[in-house]
Automatic annotation (TrEMBL):
Upper taxonomic lineage: Eukaryota, Viridiplantae, Streptophyta, Embryophyta, Tracheophyta
Record-linked SUPFAM superfamilies: Nucleotide-diphospho-sugar transferases
InterPro entries named in the record: Cellulose_synth, Nucleotide-diphossugar_trans
Record: active site: D103, D473
Pfam families, A to Z: Cellulose_synt
Membrane topology: Multi-pass membrane protein
Keyword Translocase in annotation: no
Residue intervals passing through the bilayer: 9-28, 550-569, 581-605, 617-635
GO molecular function ontology, one term from the record: cellulose synthase (UDP-forming) activity
Native source species: Aegilops tauschii subsp. strangulata
Gene Ontology terms: biological process: cell wall organization; cellulose biosynthetic process; plant-type cell wall organization or biogenesis
Name the record gives this protein: Uncharacterized protein
Key words of the record: Cell wall biogenesis/degradation, Glycosyltransferase, Golgi apparatus, Membrane, Transferase, Transmembrane, Transmembrane helix
């Protein structure tokens, strides 16, 4: 402060403000980690309380949401493996339903889901018979190491394993050939049926050869292209009966013996919402809000767990683990969601692009767990349905029931579906363990999937997942915390869920751009943490300020990088020669910061390599990605659209060598230029 250069005061001010910014943000980041809280689910206690001696269970109902858009960017094999792992998870089969949202309206996804349901008839009983882990066949059959056998038929395991693997290879081959088969079938049907009908000339046809696909056609046409097609809903697997149904004994046609295994499959529903020109369909958030309404009309479970199309259930006990926290008699009733960490396959051993992001998941979120809970990070999260309906948590509800109802609900808040509104009281009953039979008609289900349903309602604002911000996940979690709900962070061994990471540097940078741009959007929106009321814990508010302003550091960091080389441009060296007191001060500060970093690594259970990768990629992000995020906010503030955020592509490759080959495939993009400079 005492050594100012009057010829370069603008540089002096940037330096002083930059030091102040770094100091304050570091301090705020530390104080949110002062009370780390590690929560471990006791699944055995849950079984003792809720499993019945006769094989029944009092576990609550559960709806599972899985979302996908493009079968190219999100390969079908990953998506169908996710479906198979969900169908085979260790949860009472009659107590959960899976809702598959195909936001591209593709016949490939529809028929792929049919193939997956067909293969599940063998795969799910095989998993139950031999207690295999993980229950996604691609990961299971290619696993290098497996634990001890835990099934009930060890003598039959090798033969069953060999036959099941052969069946899976056949399933993969049919899945791979699905696009070509649909295209060939459609060409043949168009030649046979479209000679005198111009509108049929480019139609895509379903497997029966007589029905045109209602969704997106291979050759787009009016009413059958991306962004313009009617709603489609199909129940692929019906709600199973309450009583177990044993599978078939071994025979020449069916060599696998499932005569002592429950062969029931959970309910599976295909959804493609309506899309029309002139409507903003709100991407993933819009698709999940449609799932929320449709599931309320069909199964209406009090709890919901969501997945991206490339994530699968890696630990079959994961659903039970999340339920442990939701039913916890201490603070479970006030818990809006349980967030699991994101873990990935196909990441190189040193995780050079910091895909696992362990400093965030295993340190930052663990610290938040001791305050009001972690933020929602997009996938692998269990929600309480009524929390998404904007209900108040029990500890913040008014004592008077009429006052409570008036404070939560406003006219036309949820739309005009009477059946949906009538389903809400039942959704609040977390002890409801018997599904109610669906009594709504097809017309009402179709209406819940239309574009116009949300007009004039609170969907995307105070109801469901939030719209108009790239990071709809963080904003939705913040909205729940702002209302007074808390959340819980749950890490398990083995990992609860695993997914596919973007191992190409370019795709990883685009992913970080979407996150950082969305974070700044949130800070400058009505969801700014500074505007939240008293229900948000003070330290939780600080954490959200950190999570929404971190890209601002890019300005000061880039200036610091340029300071030592500015003499190259003007021939003047503005930086003072360090004097002894300042040098000692810098050494002490740096040593203290690094020491605290090491302590953080220790209590979070991380390695030094995790910390190094986090630091490396932070520098890459601040120089290459965050400046673009700042530009995005500047353009938005001027009323311009801003930067377009693209879906992160996941490539389907062969063996381990091919999977990691993309690490060295550098695709030049403008985001890389500042970092290289």
């Amino acid at each position: 402060m005492r050594h100012r250069d009057s010829d370069a005061m603008w540089l002096w001010w940037i330096s002083v403000v930059g030091d102040l910014w770094f100091g304050v943000t570091w301090l705020l980041n530390q104080i949110t980690k002062l009370r780390p809280r590690k929560c471990v689910p006791s699944i055995s206690v849950l079984r003792d309380h809720l499993d019945q001696p006769d094989g029944g269970s009092d576990l609550p109902l559960l709806d599972v949401f899985i979302n996908t858009v493009d079968p190219v960017d999100e390969p079908m094999l990953y998506t169908m493996n996710s479906i198979l792992s969900i169908l085979a998870t260790d949860y009472p089969v009659e107590k959960y339903a899976t809702y598959f949202s195909d936001d591209g309206g593709s016949l490939v996804h529809y028929e792929g889901l049919q193939l997956a349901a067909e293969f599940a008839a063998s795969w799910v009983p095989f998993c139950r018979k031999h207690c295999v882990e993980p229950r996604a066949p691609e990961s299971y059959f290619w696993a290098k190491m497996r634990g001890e056998y835990a099934g009930s038929a060890p003598k039959e395991f090798l033969d069953d394993h060999r036959r099941m693997r052969a069946a899976y290879e056949e399933f993969k081959a049919r899945l791979d050939g699905l696009s070509a088969a649909i295209e060939q079938r459609s060409e043949a049907c168009n030649r046979a049926n479209g000679k005198d009908k111009e509108e049929c000339a480019n139609a895509t046809w379903m497997a029966d050869g007589s029905t045109q696909w209602q969704g997106t056609w291979i050759k787009p046409a009016k009413g059958h292209r991306k962004g313009h097609h009617p709603a489609i809903l199909q129940v692929m697997l019906d709600q199973p009966s309450k009583d177990p149904e044993l599978g078939m004994a071994a025979s020449s046609d069916h060599p696998l013996d499932f005569s002592a295994v429950d062969a029931r499959l959970p309910m599976l529903v295909y959804i493609a919402r309506e899309k029309r020109p002139g409507y903003d369909h709100q991407k993933k958030a819009g698709a999940m809000n449609v799932q929320l309404r449709v599931s309320a009309l069909l199964s209406n479970a009090p709890f919901i767990i969501n997945f991206d199309g490339d994530h699968y259930v890696n630990n079959s006990q994961a659903f039970r683990a999340a339920i442990c926290f939701m039913l916890d008699p201490r603070d479970g009733a006030d818990t809006a969601f349980v967030q699991f960490p994101q873990r990935f396959d196909d990441v190189d051993p040193t995780d050079r692009y910091c895909n696992h992001n362990r400093m965030f998941f295993d340190a930052t979120l663990l610290g938040l767990n001791g305050i009001q809970g972690p933020s929602f990070v997009g996938t692998g999260c269990m929600f309480r349905r009524v929390a998404l309906y904007s209900a108040d948590p029990p500890r913040w509800r008014p004592d008077d029931a009429k006052e409570a109802k008036a404070s939560r609900y406003r006219p036309n808040m949820f739309g005009k579906s009477t059946s949906f509104i009538n389903s809400m009281p039942a959704a609040a009953n977390q002890e409801r363990s018997v599904p109610s039979p669906a009594t709504v008609g097809e017309a009402e289900l179709a209406d819940a999937m239309t574009c116009a349903y949300e007009d004039g309602t609170e969907w995307g604002n105070d109801v469901g997942w939030v719209y108009n911000i790239a990071t709809e996940d963080v904003v939705t979690g913040f909205r729940l915390h702002r209302t007074g709900w808390r959340s819980t962070y749950c890490a398990m061994e083995p990992d609860a869920f695993r997914g596919t990471a973007p191992i190409n540097l370019t795709e990883r940078l685009y992913q970080i751009l979407r996150w950082s741009g969305g974070s700044l959007e949130m800070f400058f929106s009505r969801f700014c943490p500074l505007l939240a009321g008293r229900r948000l814990h003070p330290m939780q508010r600080v954490a959200y300020i950190n999570m929404t302003t971190y890209p601002v550091s890019t300005f000061f960091i880039c200036m610091y990088y340029l300071y030592p080389v500015m003499w190259l441009f003007q021939g003047e060296f503005y930086i003072q020669r360090p004097f002894q007191t300042f040098a000692l001060f810098v050494v002490v500060i740096i040593a203290t910061v690094e020491l605290i970093g090491m302590v953080e690594i220790r209590w979070a259970g991380l390695t030094l390599l995790d910390w190094v990768r986090n630091e490396q990629f932070y520098i890459i992000g601040t120089t290459g990605v965050y400046p673009m995020a700042m530009l995005h906010i500047l353009l938005r503030s001027l009323g311009i659209k801003g930067v377009s955020f693209k879906l992160t592509a996941k490539k389907l490759t062969g063996g381990a060598r091919e999977r990691l080959a993309e690490l060295y495939d550098v695709q030049w993009v403008p985001l890389l230029v500042p970092t290289v400079v």
